[in-house]
User: Fold this.
Amino acid sequence: MSLRPSPFHDQLESLQQDVLKMGTIVEQALGDAVAALASGDLERAQRVIAGDDELDRMEIAIEQTCLTLIALHQPLASDLRILGTALKLVTDIERIGDHAVDIAKVAVRLDAEPLIKPLVDIPEMAAVVRRMIRECLSAYVRRDPALAREMIGLDDQVDHLYSRVFRDLLAEMIESPDKTRQGAYLLLVAQYLERVGDHATNFGEWIVYMVTGERVDLNA
Amino acid sequence: MAEETLRIEVRQLNLFYGQVQALRNINLQVMSGLVTALVGPSGCGKSSFLRTINRMNDMIPGARVEGQVLLDGVDVYGTMDVASLRKRVGMVFQKPNPFPRSIFENVAYGPRIHGQKNPAELRDLVEQSLRQAALWDEVKDKLHRSAYILSGGQQQRLCIARALAVGPEILLMDEPASALDPIATARIEELVHQLKSQYTIVIVTHNLQQASRVSQHAAFFLAGELVEAGTTSDLFTAPKDRRTEDYLTGRFG
Ligand SMILES: Nc1ncnc2c1ncn2[C@@H]1O[C@H](COP(=O)(O)OP(=O)(O)OP(=O)(O)O)[C@@H](O)[C@H]1O
Ligand SMILES: [Mg+2]
Assistant:
């Protein structure tokens, strides 16, 4: 029995390329936001904030394509899962993009004021969640549920770093009340990054579903 | 919601037309209270399989069946009398095939040969069957006109009424809507939906959207084999077998 290519499957393929592109942009935006925060680079922070409109447009375009393909082709089996997954993934990707913007806004609020102390754990958290996003994207294009599951394992590191940041910042703030404002902002940043880890985990679960048809809850 | 109980159990069924094997080692369970759809490419054996359930293949010269078809645990290929089997298992075909008689006679025919002679009871039964088939309102004023004046969709509902009139428990439908327009098709689908609580329904369809709309269980046939069966939702969203996947995604060349 031979497999037949079809215009519909070409459209599905290009849809997945769009999801990948959006994911790549978001991963970059997150890196820029955290770097802008660590270095007090306001211009870089503004670029991240300005970039969000483009991401929103991409999200809407992908959703529209998914709905159109579902309506016109009434897909089943893996075709249906690819479309259902794309609809879910763009939401998670868009939320990650929002958090990149949130972090960039903190950078703007802090207005390049000297930091309490050099950021260590926050950039490390950012590095882990960015790695999660990159692995999501490669698991997505390679249709590799094993990689997706492995990636989800990284979320423990994120949670661990988050509690450490939380504890340390709290201690700083109690000790020197003049650091409270900055400490509160940095706490928010850590919380955004922790949420990004959760979105990456969702992403990974959807990849497992897309490839295997099994719905899993891997961060339970 | 009707009870879902095991109604038909097919075990290791083989069907031969002369030397040619048309069905290979089929195992399938059909539950009452829901609709089971049979899907698969043309020539894969769906109609042949349906006919093994009410022994319609017996009429085909050279056809031979091996294995068991258990109806409520009793093998239809055992001592069961074929006439009473056919009374319990009604069938509706792809092309509406009314008899060249009146609308009334089409429906009354079956009960009459099964011994219903009382005219008043017969009239009630005809009305009730036509109502069940959602046709009564359209034909109640012309019951004694020829069945051939009806539209294709009406004729198909007449055939369903005719099948229901003998009081079957099981309804086999072989592509009952494939010759109908979308509106007539929707009426048949609606009807299947209404009938499913009272009958065990097995429906063959080429239309996957139709299968997903009307059925709760589905089975995929390919080249005489039953590849995969399960709930329609599982089969259509996450089939386990590569061949089902390729068929559902239209990748078969
Ligand atoms: N009466 C018969 N005598 C010999 N071979 C037959 C007979 N009826 C069917 N076959 C063969 O058995 C195989 C299965 O046919 P069947 O009609 O069951 O397929 P189907 O799945 O219903 O196809 P379709 O979707 O086109 O109706 C086919 O190869 C067909 O040629
Ligand atoms: Mg057929």
In short: Chain A has a mean pLDDT of 94. The pocket of magnesium ion (ligand 2) is lined by residues B 46-47, 174 (CB under 6 Å). The two ends of chain A are 42 Å apart (CA to CA). DSSP finds seven helices and no strands in chain A.
